[in-house]
Amino acid sequence: MRVSYNWLRDFVDLDGISPYELADRLTMVGLAAEGIEEPGKGIEKVYTGRILQIEAHPNADKLVICRVVTMGGEEVQIVTGATNVAEGQVVPVAVVGAKLAGGLAIKKAKLRGVESRGMLCSGQELGLDPSTMPAEQAHGIMVLAPDTPVGVDVKPLIGLDDVVLELELTPNRGDCLSILGVAREVAAILGKPLKMPSTDLPETVPTGNEPVRVDIEEPELCRRYVARLLKNVQAGPSPAWMQHRLRAVGVRPISNVVDVTNYVMMELGQPLHAFNYHKLQDGRIIVRRAVEGEMIVSLDNVARKLNSEMLVITDSSGPVAVAGVMGGLDSEVTEVTGAVLLESAYFNPVSIRRTARDLALHSESSSRYEHGIDITGCQRAADRAARLLAEMGAAQVVDLVVDNYAAPVVEKTILLRPNRVRHVLDVDLTPAEITGLLTGLQFEVQEEANGLMVTVPGHRPDIAIEEDLIEEVARLHGYGRMPDTLPTGAMTSGSLPATQLLARQVRNFLSRGGFYEVVTYSFHSPRVFDKLGLPEDNPLRKTVDLQNPLSEEQSVMRTQLYPGLLDVLQRNSNRRNWDAAVFEMGRVFFPAAGKPLPEEVTVLTAAVTGKRPGGWNSRSVDMDFYFLKGNLEVLLADVGVRDVTYRPAANVPGFHPGRTAEVHAGDQKLGIIGELHPDAQDAYALKQRVTVFELNFDRLAETAGRPMVYQPLPKFPGVERDLALLAHIDVPASSLLGLIYREGGAILRDVRLFDVYQGEQVAEGQRSIAFSLQFQADDRTLTDEEVAGKVTLITAALEKELSATLRE
Q1: Residue 136: is its pLDDT beyond 70?
Q2: Where residue 133 falls among pLDDT bands split at 50, 70, 90?
Q3: How far apart are CA 213 and CA 603, in angstroms?
Q4: How far is CA 624 from CA 609, 613, 627, in A?
Q5: Which of 253, 256, 364, 714 is least surrounded by CB atoms within 10 angstroms?
């Protein structure tokens, strides 16, 4: 919210307090001043001047020579390229030695052989924002009113002697989206009276034959609608002082009628709209919901399609405005408008917010309606606008005002207990002091036996309970005056829950192992399932759909995490980065029958592709299935998951049917690891094989954390034996390994697979698998007979149960 310091002076005496001190005081009561702007700072020696004569430049077609009279009656010659200059105009003149916005210094110069002793200034050269200038002056010389005195400092005439405060307001302080609202806070801070703007109307004229009728068909969306008629409208520019104030708060002057509606909105916080009365059929205003698909051409000349959730203002023939957002082009006030109907209404904040969002049409009006306005101030704002238009001779006020206010708001009264104030704030304030602070904010306070009965004014809809009033007392009393007190109570040391500690451990492990953590969107396109080859009846296709997606590419909540990693790999591959190892821990979402919110499951996933680069003393390593499986095995061991097995999985959509396994911890399935299916790889335009694991982190947390068992170092030597076995290729190595451990008993300490071979000297359909077995006892040195006996038991069991024989 931009606040003009000079405008504030209309409502409260600011003598003795600078803009910078005021900004600090406002910040301390919750209206944070994010910046202070001095538009005229650094501008010197710029005066008003009248153009006496214009001659063509003898050496340039696009330049002219102006003879200008300025300060002290001095006539100077100035060469300019401006196209909007004319004899008799009063314009800003920067004389030799002047300084303009941006530090530009004016010197005597020759332009194409002709001496120029100054410069005619545009608004932009004086530091004014071109977007807030009238269209005809946005890029040309700034033309002042014809009766402007010549030879005076131009800064006070165009508002450059002002200071603008940029306030950052919290969402509940919609009352401060106006100069009067901020002035109310300033008056309370300084303890000075608040001067209200006059709404007394001049003499009105009879109605005549101009009927006005207001029908509200949606009272829950429009609780009040005031319509005031003005006639004999003389459209034209608004006074210079009004234009300067509007520019100071960031509003572009347009015409006197439009400028007055904007001026009152910025002054009082009540949005207004002016209809061309003669464009309203039968003088009738109807407030209703739009018909689905109904169209309106708004003031910005854009055809907009409406829906049945939007509130519109119509006459008997159709829409003339989108309520609270923007007017319609057909009922626009123009130079030939003879009568105006002013709208001052209260619209439902939620309805306006949704309409502005759906139409992508946010405006100063919609912003104020969204925050909530003072329903009791609708007629005051209409009267204020009527008074201003009458004062400038732009219209006559008709003695006709329609106020459709079927259910007037009942004043809100809250009991405020001084003891409660002292308890919450730990400040000893008397009832009289509390009353003084609240009355400074225009609250009405009446002292009673059980406390203070506070009547909340209409401009503070955010005040609802006793604690809200206590906050107001604290703000005005001063947070800096609150005593410092240490908290009391039992002190406890904070700690992370087990799942968060596990998540941190997993992230640290993978990061140390060379994996990069990524964070992807929680929503994606339904086409992801087609890329992965999921059947139409696959449960993973049952998604939570977004009601208002950013695009079709982000329209459903994810049910798998690893497709996001595939997108990351694809983007890297497109940029010739073909070697990558990434992981993510996040949530997937599933519809929950009969529940408003979806079921959320935390998932850990990782993906690798390409090679891990080698060094001067190491070789590069293929990041394939075995690379990822090895990292996963060490990770699971590191977090205390025991009894981990990998079981072949053949028909997992998106994964290679012969290179995929389920990951189990005992009887609990943790997830899956496997190579991406070639079709999925092609769908993501990945040139190299990709291996992925995806684990249910919630199940992982249930099985992790088993304590690490420490054993003393062995006192007796161990014995190693190698077994080279011939087994059918369908027999998994894990089955052989499990049987060996079972038959080896307590003295078999470790088994390591060190060779797998298929080819010559091995029958078709079989493979050679070699294991290294380590035997060791805690209480003795093992004999060859003991070890040989165990090996015999193992080989016999392998041949009997798995048809695996010793290779000769």
Answers
A1: no
A2: confident
A3: 62
A4: 7, 13, 5
A5: 714
